[in-house]
From TrEMBL:
The keyword DNA damage applies. The keyword 4Fe-4S applies. It holds the Pfam family DEAD_2. This is ATP-dependent DNA helicase. SMART domains: DEXDc2, HELICc2. InterPro entries: ATP-dep_Helicase_C (IPR006555), DinG/Rad3-like (IPR045028), Helic_SF1/SF2_ATP-bd_DinG/Rad3 (IPR014013), Helicase-like_DEXD_c2 (IPR006554), P-loop_NTPase (IPR027417), PDDEXK-like_dom_sf (IPR011604), RAD3-like_helicase_DEAD (IPR010614). GO terms for molecular function: DNA helicase activity; hydrolase activity. It comes from Pseudaquabacterium inlustre.
Length: 785
């Protein structure tokens, strides 16, 4: 009766999740990512809970099931079992009617339920069972049930057929895992020796993986942090049974460094043999999509038509190729006429090391958390330049709405949607009319009238796009932004602030005002600003095997621990610099103030100090300022006073060619000063070793400007973590200072000068947040020129 399976190739079976088995064997036809009113992961859990509550006290949930068939150990968790009806259920939560679900996706749902049914019959010894596919509409709280009775023998046959179709792939994966683990167990360090401090970092990362903990690692520039974190984690992979490593970056330059390090660590495979390590770059949709003007569906995009029919050949080629950076992934996709973005998503489960932006793990819509949970991955994570993670994740859990966005949407809205958008416009205008001063007002809660109007507009747009699933364009983009704002409004708590900013003041309008009465020239912003990402990130950390966050600027460690929601037992290591402290001459310009009120009268002394340093030690320098206006004032003063000193300046919104031209001025025999803004594109991630850069001037503390929002942010952080920490301003500002200073010494042999052009760098609360090896506590006084 059962389709026979060949004996396993190894003693240990290949463990496969029900979802993976069914997606591998049952997915056919078109890729279909048209707009559907899908539920979030949280709504899915809530939906399953609500269905379970309706079933009665005997209802079983999250039933762990497992069986071994030939080389496979098939495992998963069935959503629920109702013993009174002898019915096993698979619950799919959505928004809207289930008849919008594509046929191939519905077939996949049945395949999963049938597989769970076979495993359940095996585990409970039953001959027959009812299977129920339940679609739960989270909006209306209604269920649509598709029910069918199966015999255990029939389900067993279907399971055996799926396992048979997957068995060859499973043997390949078992062989790959064995070869990978054998290679990694004896992996040699790619350099002749560890650099100073690099071994300490590597040992801490290895211990963190062995203990399944979290680690904050502050390590200075020049010790080789990328290799120093990847190497020990790769070595830990076999013994700790780590399925995947994700190397996540906050800057694109970090991805390139990671790929280069992995290329060196991976080595060159022997002729004809597959590489023992599969590496994949995770691309964002906007950088991978070939047809951004088309909906992701076979009726609209040729790369979606027949996607799953052509996927097996592309998947086999990709895993054999093993190295999938951006060009390689696009080449495979082009050869098989597939969407490179969705091909990349399909390949994630077969890679060993994933490289990509932090949004893949931490964004509300990042794909890694869902895959890791569904497929039970042991996922170890490295986060590069982690000092940026607080601000990056704050933005992920923030959203805003401008009046002009609503006006633009109204102009393209169909008649059925226009009244709801007009109501949102009136509610927003009324709220902004009460916003107070032009610089903004922060409210403790979202007013009910606006929240209701937002929900009505979001619902109207959802219904429209449900009826027009092939729509693309600005109105759909507006809907996604509106949906994002609504979700954050619904979850507003002490972790976020709700701000109103009207400019110019918008008049209050009656509810029955015609659309023509809406002012066209007014604008304003309603925004949810996340202050503490921790509540959103804690579940992400808890689900990981281990995590190491590293940067040259992570002090004080409690700042990252508390704002990012890391566990209390998160480790901390502060690696000493790879060069003698005397290689960097750090000086403070005492008596000089760069406060806004003092800038005009201190500008001459500031420029004199820069010129004096340049005359004493000619070479290439970077000068960092708090704003483009301040930068322009200093550059103009230096040009008037010393036209013989070459200078070049960062501009607002510089294109890539202009950035490269700016950096090209730092030639080995060059002389001059490049002016840049602190925290900008040239303040970190820039590598100018040796004579390319011999010094830096930092003419600011980098503190944020005074504003109502900044005041509320400080008050909220003080209320949550206690006053005096400086979490709202001083800590992130001085992290940016240390990052900028890190441009000077890039290798252990470099020497250079750092001028801190503000007397406030002598303050104890400032000195405490700067590297101790700078020696500021004992430094001599250097009056401004």
């Amino acid at each position: 009766m059962n389709a026979p399976l060949p004996p396993p190739a190894t003693d240990a079976p290949y463990s496969v999740a029900v979802r993976t088995l069914c997606e591998f064997t049952a997915k056919q036809g078109d890729l279909d990512r048209r707009f559907t009113p899908s539920a979030t992961a949280l709504e899915g859990l809530l939906g399953q809970g609500l269905v379970a509550q309706r079933r009665g006290p005997d209802y079983e949930t999250e039933i762990a099931l497992e069986a071994t068939l030939g080389p496979l150990r098939v495992r998963g968790r069935a959503d629920g079992y109702d013993p009174r009806r002898r019915c096993l259920e698979e619950i799919k939560t959505l928004r809207g009617p289930p008849d919008e679900i594509p046929a191939n996706r519905r077939r996949l749902h049945w395949a999963q339920l049938q597989t769970y049914g076979a495993l359940f019959c095996r585990a409970r010894g039953v001959d027959e069972i009812a299977l129920s596919l339940v679609y739960f509409d989270i909006a209306s709280q209604t269920e649509t049930e598709l029910r069918q009775v199966y015999g255990a023998a029939e389900l067993e046959t279907l399971l055996a057929q799926r396992c048979q179709a997957f068995s060859a792939w499973a043997r390949q994966e078992l062989a790959h895992r064995a070869a990978r683990d054998a290679a990694l167990a004896g992996l040699a360090f790619p350099e002749p020796a560890f650099r100073p401090g690099q071994r300490d970092l590597a040992a801490a990362v290895y211990r963190t993986a062995r203990q399944r903990h979290r680690l904050l690692a502050q390590a200075p520039t020049g010790i080789g942090k990328t290799v120093g974190t990847l190497y020990p984690l790769l070595r830990a992979m076999p013994a700790e049974r780590i399925d995947k490593i994700a190397f996540l970056t906050c800057k694109n330059t970090g991805r390139l460094a990671a790929l280069e390090a992995l290329h060196n660590l991976r080595g060159t495979p022997s002729a004809g043999a597959p590489a023992p390590l599969r590496v994949q770059l995770m691309l964002a949709k906007e950088e991978a999509c070939v047809h951004p003007d088309k909906a992701c569906h076979g009726d609209a995009c040729p790369l979606a038509r027949g996607f799953y029919d052509r996927l097996p050949a592309a998947r086999a080629q990709a895993v054999a190729q093993a190295w999938l950076d951006g060009p390689a992934l696009r080449a495979v996709a082009a050869q098989h006429q597939l969407c490179p973005y969705y091909l990349g998503q399909e390949l994630l489960r077969w890679a060993d090391v994933l490289v990509g932006d932090v949004h893949h793990l931490f964004d509300p819509h990042g794909q890694l958390p869902g895959l890791a949970q569904a497929l039970d991955w042991q996922l170890a994570v490295l986060v590069d330049e982690a000092h940026n993670l607080v601000e990056r994740t704050r933005r992920m859990y923030s959203a805003q709405l401008r009046l002009r966005q609503i006006d633009t949407a109204l102009r393209s809205a169909p008649p059925a949607v226009a009244p709801a958008l007009a109501g949102l416009r009136r509610a927003a205008a009324q709220l902004l009319g009460e916003a107070g001063p032009p610089e903004g007002t922060v409210l403790g809660r979202v007013p009910e009238g606006f929240a209701q109007a937002l929900q009505t507009a979001t619902g109207a747009l959802a219904e429209h796009f449900q009826q027009q699933p092939l729509s693309v364009g600005t109105l759909l983009d507006f809907f996604f932004e509106l949906q994002r704002l609504q979700r954050l409004v619904d979850t507003l708590g002490e972790h976020s602030l709700f701000e109103l900013q009207a400019s110019p003041p918008t008049p209050t309008l009656p509810d029955d005002a015609p659309l023509a009465a809406l002012p066209a020239d007014g604008d304003g912003v309603l925004a949810v600003h996340n202050v503490v990402p921790a509540p959103f990130l804690r579940p992400r950390w808890a689900a990981l095997h281990s995590a190491t966050l590293f940067s040259a600027t992570l002090a004080p460690p409690d700042f990252a621990r508390q704002l990012l929601g890391l566990p209390d037992d998160t480790g901390w290591i502060d690696v000493p610099p790879a060069f003698p402290p005397e290689h960097l001459c750090v000086q403070v310009a005492d008596g000089l103030s760069t406060r806004y009120a003092h800038r005009r009268r201190s500008l001459q002394a500031l420029v004199d100090t820069m010129a004096r340093q340049f005359d004493a030690h000619p070479g290439n320098y970077l000068a960092f300022f708090s704003s483009f206006d301040y930068l322009a004032q200093a550059a103009a003063q230096l040009a008037r006073q010393r036209p013989d000193i070459p200078q070049w300046c960062q501009q607002r919104r510089m294109p890539e060619e202009a950035r490269l031209a700016f950096l090209a001025r730092f030639a080995p025999q060059g002389r001059g000063i490049g002016f840049a803004v602190l925290g900008g594109v040239f303040a970190e991630g820039v590598d100018l070793p040796g004579p390319l850069l011999i010094g830096a001037f930092i003419a600011t503390l980098g503190l944020p400007p005074v504003s109502p929002l900044q005041t509320h942010l400080r008050e909220r952080l003080d209320a949550l973590f206690g006053p005096g920490h400086g979490y709202a301003d001083r800590v992130p500002a001085l992290q940016r200072v240390v990052q900028a200073a890190g441009r000077v010494l890039r290798t252990p042999d470099d020497r250079g000068w750092l001028w801190l052009l503000d007397q406030r760098y002598r303050a104890p609360e400032v000195t405490a947040l700067l590297p101790a090896w700078w020696g500021l506590a004992d430094a001599a006084t250097h009056p401004a020129a």
